[in-house]
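#data-curation
PF: Archiving a pair of folding outputs for the training set. Convention for this channel: one message per protein, sequence first, structure tokens after, nothing in between. First:
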Amino acid sequence: MSESPFIHQVTLQNFQTEVIDRSFNQPVLVDFWADWCQPCQSLIPVLHKLAEEYNGAFHLAMVNSDEQGELAAQAGVRSLPTVKLFVDGQIVNEFMGAQPESEVRKFLDPYIKTESDAVLDEAISAYTQGNKDQALELLNAALAKDPDNARLKINIAKLVANENDFDSATALIESLSAEDRELPEAKEILAHIKLANKLKEAGDPKELEQRIKDNPDDLEALLKMSDYLTAAENYEAAIDLLFRVMQKDASYNDGAARKGLLDLFDLLGSEHPLVKASRRKMFTLLH
């Protein structure tokens, strides 16, 4: 039996205290196992190692299913090992069968609150209250201790971009791994920066409106007006103008309308209904 403060032997009698109640303070990983189960014996050292390494960021609850058959049945366990993760009194995820350490880490990490996460929450709170310098100081201090933390870099980039320091924001995003640069939050920041830079050279929107009125096929004016509409969050109208350009000349200005649509998709996120509909329409136009 482990003497770790982060690993607990759980029965039907103490399940409420050790799992449900504790999960309101930190995630609780419940491992349903048995002595005769070879995959269980392979998984147990992995779970114990991670419980120690994460140092209380989650607790591990061990349930001997042979001895606690009623508890296993109530939990809906049908094969061993079965591992269920509890957060705020509820099962939020689970897996069955032995998993390598790397996969268990991926399973856990979305639910684990680290020291950096706590600092990030504090910094976001400071920023929303108008304490921008304090927020940036907190984030930079956290990043110094955790230099590979993508979430910290993305949030610092977002903060400095909001203050129009686009060079620093871009450098932070570019310092991310190739995988992390594909995160929606990272792509959104770069899309905002690209839009802000385009608006600097877009000219007077009233003049653009007049140019389009005089010549509905003024592709340059249509492109620039789409940027103003995007900045005004009139996304549907911006998309319509970009499609007008594509329908007239998809290759105009090195495919600027198609690139503008892709930037707008990054800004809105792949799940936005306008993005889903527009991707289908763009595919049809291009093919």
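PF: Second:
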Amino acid sequence: MRKMRVRTEVLGDLPHLLEVSIEGDLSNASPTDPITWVRGDEGMIAFGEYKRIEISGSDRFEKARKWWQDSLRELDIHNNVHGSGTGPILFASFAFDSEEPSTLLIPEVVIGKRGERRWITWFGDGPQPEVKSIKSESAPLPLRWSGENGDAWRSHVAAIVDLIQRGEAEKVVLARALDGSIEGEQRIDTRRLLQLLGSDYPNTWLFSNQGLVGATPELLVRLSKSLVTSRVLAGTIKRSGDDEKDLALAASLARSSKDLEEHEYAVRSVADALVPLCSSTNVPESPFVLHLSNVMHLATDVTGVVTDSVNPPDVFDLLARLHPSAAVCGTPRERAERSIREVEEISRGRYAGPVGWVDIRSDGEFGIALRCGQIDESKKSIRIYAGCGIVAGSDPAAEYAESEAKLAAIQGALARH
């Protein structure tokens, strides 16, 4: 069987990645709906669809590895750039629950930028696609919001606190969802939504994949040349908008026993997951405070070096070990997952699951799909999500206020869309 040709070449100057589009006919290549992984002005934007599959099951990360490796054997790869993220790329978005569908997609064209390097990868025997700049117009969306009311969700939090105080768990992450629908003929423009989120939250990873769109501050795992990095966020406080007050709030967050306890559970779950796969790990003794435009988080960057062996761990091994972490599930993991199923009453879909990319070396970068929404195929409705870590000292009213602050991230961008 003749292999599909794939080429990667150096590019010259580019507009911002969120303004990049291409000329030419591709399958499923809507200029307003790219596949995206961007932070600042670095990352990747992709178009078209060479192959796609949905998978599920407890062995989904192994299934993903096999499908990617089988797909690579079909390709005749010519890479004149080399390095992490070049060549054909698998974009993946995994559901939170292993029994719900996860999406794997290999696009036809990928445009990437890292530092001073810019490149394009494309499938087929045709000439290199022409890169162009595209602008998205703002148009306020008449969204009507509906979903679980505050009283019901606060009662769910109280039920989880009672469970924890009885000693049945240490931490449980409880999520809620809101549904927004457009009245009229307008549609949600994924690219414009990403641009607004990037403007509001420049320190986050912007992602879009098959309708899932968001800006996550939490890097689940990056694997690059055997170096592993994971940014853990747990413990949150809403910003006031006044710089002096926010400094005081950051100091109180850093001293909060409730938030430090929640954060320690999350850091410990990541560190414990990495130890069997790494020859060395580094876990800072104390978290730092990550400042976003609407909230502040306790944050810790855990790093490690994967074991040097005949078959060293790849990014799929790391994902299988790390997900779901205590930051989005709780601890002990099995009891927290059971509590979520019993109390939460929503389908998380791909919210709080790993979202990112894998290259031909099985290196990659995955965030946790937070501060996000799932746009339906008509682009006239969106379901947005937020979650809070519940521990013994949690107050239902305070947790509800925290969830509102997290939902405001994507609601604010949609309001200015």
